[in-house]
Amino acid sequence: MSETHNLLAALALLGVYLMLIPMKALPAVFPYEFLLFAHHSMSAMIGYAIWCHIPADNNRTRVFLYGIGGIFLSSFAFQTAVTLYRNHFWFQSVSLSKNGSFDYIQVQLKLRKPVKVEPGQYINLWVPLGPISSIQSHPFTVANWSPEAQKELKLFVEVNSGLTKTLRDRVELELTSNIGIFTGPYGRRIPVENYETVILIATGLGVVALTPYLQWLVHAARMREVRIAPVHLVWQISSWKQSHTVFDVIDFALALDEREDDLGDGKEAGVLSKTRPHAVKISMYYEEEEPLPPKVQLFIKDMKKKEEEMGGKTRVKVYECQLPLMNVLLSETVMSPTHGHSGKPTLIAASVPRIARNTLVEFARENSRAVDLVLADYQP
Question: Which residue windows are transmembrane per the record (predicted)?
């Protein structure tokens, strides 16, 4: 009996140690769904091992475990009730679409009940697609934002393994209409309203995590809720095939920036403010070896033509080169003409790969008085 108790104690300790392993690097090796299932299974094993390790006549300790179990069940019941309420007690409509190379897919979630999503938040999506779909829920960043509660959420899904690969297989079979359940939204919102200068830096699909902030800032500037310099989105495009579908999200911010003001200086609502400057500028960098799609070629040609006509004062600029990250950081922060006019530092919000993150962290450390660096929850 004592050997069994010792074995159970060892299993519980082993489970605790395994739970302490950082999970951020593991999704690159194992599917996210497998790690989530292992995490839940490990938690159940720890609880069972501790319960069996405690002698049956030790009532005080068992009462303590009863309390922990009660808290867990109460929390689970509450989360279940919230999920059922937000899903309006039924499945949601899930529509899938693809780009040409299947390296990512777009998911449109049409909700039965509107939900308010803050910029940068994500949801967990569960789609019943097969025998193992019960463990295939996955977090996805919401790519669109609205000042009101939304009935449609846009998700851009990078295809790896697990649920994302299953979704791609469905699209390949032209099974684009599905059902699903979501939980959330979760995640923190970067306090961009506390700054007068904001730079958004993204690589590839990392732009999905930052475009809601772009939309929010443009809306807030237009409604006179914040006073900021034009928000600068710096985007390294990995592939135009991967990125052209994201244009509709950015187009929303650009169109909103051009709309008439709802609040005027002593004027009626809807009167265009001629003195209000544009609130957004976008710099796109790309290196593409393959021939560009015709729509992309037309877009780049149109942007360069506008830049020549307006003497370089266009909101969208396209550069055929690798993103010169350090040059951009220096020119937009410590070497910027506006640097020092405000007592507030410049906010840099980023969703970039590890090498670029290391560069940003080092730059922010060296210029801590001039720069605040915040990383989005989603990092490519």
Answer: 37-56, 63-85, 198-218
Q: Give the strands of the sheet with 137-141, arranged side by side.
A: 137-141, 122-126, 177-186, 92-98, 104-115, 150-158
Instruction: Let me know: does 138 contact 162? Beta carbons within 8 Å.
Output: yes
> b vs e for 83-95, b when ≥16 Cβ sit within 10 Å of the residue's Cβ?
beebbeeebbebe
Q: Which CATH architecture has domain 192-264+275-375?
A: 3-Layer(aba) Sandwich (3.40)
Run of H or E residues at 351: strand 346-351
Residues 154, 155, 156, 159, CA torsion sign: negative
In DSSP notation, 74-91 reads: HHHHHHHHHHHHHTTTSP
Provide the pLDDT for residue 269: 34
The residue behind tokens 């915040």 is 374
118-148 tens-digit pLDDT: 998 999 998 887 766 666 678 889 988 888 9
Judge contact between 280 and 257, C-beta under 8 A.
yes
Name the one residue in this structure whose structure tokens are 């790969």.
353
Domain positions in the chain: 2-86, 92-186, 192-264+275-375
Domains 92-186 and 192-264+275-375 alike in fold: no
- How far apart CA 228 and CA 156 sit, in angstroms, is 29
CATH architecture label of 92-186: Beta Barrel (2.40)
More confident residue, 375 or 21: 375
